Amino acid sequence: MTLQQLRYVITVAKNGSISEAAKELFISQPSLSNAIKELEKEMQIVIFSRTNKGIVVSEEGREFLGYARQVVEQADLLKERYLETKTVKKRFSISTQHYSFAVDAFVDLVKKYRDSEYEFTLRETRTYEIIEDVKTLKSEIGILYLNDFNEKVITKLLKENNLVFKELFQAKPHIFVSNTNPLAVKKIVTLEDIEPYPYLCFEQGEYNSFYFSEEILSTLTHRKIIRVSDRATLFNLLIGLNGYTISTGIISEELNGKNIIAIPLAVDEIIKVGYIVHRDINRSFLGSLFIESLQNNIEF
After folding, report:
1. How far apart are CA 73 and CA 67, in angstroms?
2. Which CATH entry fits the domain spanning 93-113+122-168+276-296: 3.30.70, 3.40.190, 1.10.287, 3.40.462?
3. CATH code for 171-271?
4. Among 58, 131, 149, 258, which residue's beta carbon has the most beta carbons within 10 A?
């Protein structure tokens, strides 16, 4: 196995095509195909599945690519440090449920980072995909929550994928509503109070299990449900439809303005919010900086 072969598979995965990757790498398509086949033979895995429509990354290939990216990036850093080559663009990715404090922390990270070149990625995505991203090292850190209902299932899944959960804080459930919502005058709301209003939640796609819901009390029956895929849409609907959603109570006024407020929900539940990381991968400098920023942006 060589660094060149690792760069080859990373480029093929990025392009989704042997021919396009060969053009980018300035080598012939047969040479690239042979190099990948030799690597697959040596590693005794199938990295790419060949189909009539082209190639797709296999399940074991996704895991291999995660490690390959780490190796290549570390090699580039060594070259930069000891061979005084041109500046290597730093890369860092996180995947998170839809939390404004995570966006605030990401903003702080970018502001603190002083290098002239970087490539950072912030994915606000579904719960199952957060776990997959960290498992395959597509992201170094994932942010999600546990509670009594989902903890057993999520913890088992993390353990199976060699991931660990690090708790950041615990919170009592709140609802987010518009400041014009009739509920906005209340100091605390009950389940009966919120029943007439549209319930807004994030859809989870193929893995739409109760255990992967971003909102606690996911098994409750609601008369009106609206599922959305992004935080901006959800907040707009909170305002436009007098809807509500259930979350931690931490909201960024700087990012979301003063139109959305948090009200405690009278239920006997605890939300444990934290981050997941790969058990076998040491935290990078940027990862440590991001965790520090997360802790600084958690305010109740």
Report:
1. 10
2. 3.40.190
3. 3.40.190.10
4. 131
Query: Which architecture does CATH list for 3-82?
Result: Orthogonal Bundle (1.10)
Residue type (1 letter), 70: Q
Residues pairing with 144 in the sheet: 274
**Phi-psi group of 249: left, alpha or beta (phi > 0 → left; psi -120 to 50 → alpha; rest → beta):** left
CA atoms within 13 A on the CB side of 52: 0
Write out the H or E segment, with its range, that includes residue 200.
Answer: strand 199-202
Q: Give per-residue pLDDT as tens, 248-279.
A: 988 766 666 678 999 999 999 999 999 999 98
Residue 14, amino acid: K
Closest CA to 95 of 59, 57, 62, 144: 144
Q: Where are the domains of the chain?
A: 3-82, 93-113+122-168+276-296, 171-271
Q: What is the pTM of this model?
A: 0.71
